[in-house]
Amino acid sequence: xxDNQLLRYSRHILLPEIExxxxxKILNSHCLVIGAGGLGSPVSIYLASSGIGKIxxxxxxxxxxxxxxxxILHNDKSIGTNKAFSARKFLNxxxxxxxxxxxxxxxxxxxxxxxxxxxxxxxxxxxxxxTRYALNKIAFNLKKPLVSGAAIKFDGQxxxxxxxxxxxxxxxxxxxxxxxxxxxxxxxxxxFSPLVGIIGSTQAAEAIKIILDLGDSLMSRLLLLNxxxxxxxxxxxxxxxxxxxxxx
Length: 248
Ligand SMILES: [Zn+2]
Description:
The protein is of the alpha/beta class. 37% of the residues lie in helices and 19% in strands. Helix 4 packs parallel to helix 5, helix 4 packs across helix 10 and helix 6 (109-116) packs across helix 7 (129-142). The longest helix is centred in the last third of the chain and has 20 residues, at 193-212. The chain is globular, with a radius of gyration of 17 Å. Zinc ion binds next to helix 8.
């Protein structure tokens, strides 16, 4: 670490749980963020400011004026531009030492697997079931940790599927893919702006903890937030022995 890095990350280095070695681990790590929207904004901002060495951020969407209420990576000037590239612009200003790799294409399973193979943690900040189920399979096959988050209206949820461990349940254990699930979209139902900040910041915390092997993760747990009443539920989840992704 250079002198300016010792200063920049000094409040991490002061923590006995992180110290110099932990910050080095953060600097040498690579995170994959899927989605540069409401959740991907706080996730990537905290990862970059923490000094994560490399962030690959994927989003094929363009910034729309209706995104700006909560997608804090973007601003008036980014309207009409690709979200992944708009994210890189903002993140470069937060920390010029973090390498940001924007991906603006819609990827198939093979393309996503190729990218995910090289990362330490996958963070699902997508807004649809199709992507969530695909990322779950990819992370399971690659035995990578997956930090999953979702937010709609006033309700949010977070969990960690740590496929480095054979005991970890997966996303499908929790929500079996019935293909009939009704998708709730922010565009139709709305979403409370700070909710995505709370959920995304929690995802960033879990991702950095995984890199540091620090404390207890949300593996085998689902955190549910009702931000209207500000109540949290911490639910134990178990591996489904008949799960078609992670069992048998
Ligand atoms: Zn499973």
